[in-house]
Amino acid sequence: MSSIIDITAPFSNTTPVWPGVEGVKISTGSSIALGHMGNTLRIDTINHAGTHMDAPRHFLNDGKTLDALPLEVVCGRAKVIWVDSQYEITIEDLQKACIAGEERVLIKSRMSAIEWWTQPFIEDFVHLSDAAAEYLVEVGVKLVGVDYVSVAGYNKNEVFVHQTLLGNDIWIIEGLVLAEAEPGYYELCCLPLKLKEGDGAPCRAILKPIH
C-alpha cells in the first residue's frame, strides 16, 4: 500500500463552484479517434474550483500573488485535526486540537465523509468563524486547509475570514479530500499552478505520514 495519501479532489464537469459562478467545462480538444494526432482536453474554469489555493491577492488588491508563494509554506510538516462542528468552527474547536505553534493546519470535518466534488454546491458546509480566523493569526499559523470549497461560510463571512487570514500572510488551501487522513502529523506537499500574478490556482496536494 502506498504511503502517500492523495488529498486532491478529482476535477471534472461536476466540480461544484460558488453560486453565481459559471461551472467547470471540460471538453475534447482533439481526438485520435477523430483522426487527430493526439488526445487533448479543453478546460474552461474559474481558478478557484476544486482543490485550489488562495493567494492574498484574492481578497486584497495589493496582496501577494500566487507566483510569489514561498514554497516552504506548502511543503513541510502539517497537522491534520478533526473538528466536531456541524457548521461553524470555533476557537474552542481549534484549542481542543492543540494547534498553537503549528505552521500548517489542515481541518477535517464532516465534509470529508461526502464526495462533495460529485454534488451540487452545498450551502451549509463547515467553515471558520470570524473568531477562529483571528485565532489562527494569533497562534502563528502560516497555512490553513479545509475540506470544502471555502474557509468562510456561504453568504456569511466570506470577506472577513479571507481578509483576516490572507491579510496576515496565511495562505489557504480549499477543497481538500481528507477522508483517508487520520488526525496527526504528515509531510505536506501542495503545488499550485504557477499562475502569473494569480489570485489563486488549482493544485495537487498530497500527504505522507510521519512515523
CATH architecture term: 3-Layer(bba) Sandwich
- Which residue ranges are poorly predicted, with pLDDT under 50 across at least 5 consecutive positions? none
The portion of residues forming beta strands comes to: 25-35%
Find the count of extended strands (DSSP E, 2+ residues).
Answer: 12
The biggest sheet, with number of strands, parallel, antiparallel or mixed sense and barrel status, is: 7 strands, mixed, barrel
Sequence of strands across the biggest β-sheet: 4-10-9-7-5-11-12
How many discrete domains? 1
Residues in helices, as a percent range: 10-25%
For this structure, the CATH topology is: Glucose Oxidase, domain 1
Question: How many H/I helical runs?
Answer: 4
| Secondary-structure element string | EEEEHEEHEEHEHEEE
What is the highest CATH level, the class? Alpha Beta
CATH superfamily: Putative cyclase
Query: Using only CA atoms, what is the Rg?
Result: 17 Å
Calculate the mean pLDDT score and round it: 97
Structural shape = globular
- Helix/sheet category: alpha/beta
How far apart lie the N and C ends?
A: 15 Å
What does this structure look like?
The structure is a single chain. The chain has helices at 71-74, 91-96, 130-138, 158-166, and strands at residues 5-6, 25-30, 40-44, 52-54, 75-82, 88-89, 104-108, 127-128, 143-146, 171-174, 184-192, 200-209. The chain has a 7-stranded mixed barrel. A two-stranded antiparallel sheet has the order 2-3. The two termini are 15 Å apart. The mean pLDDT is 97. It is of the alpha/beta class. The chain has one domain (5-9, 46-209): 3-Layer(bba) Sandwich (Glucose Oxidase, domain 1). Strand 11 and strand 12 (200-209) form a beta hairpin.
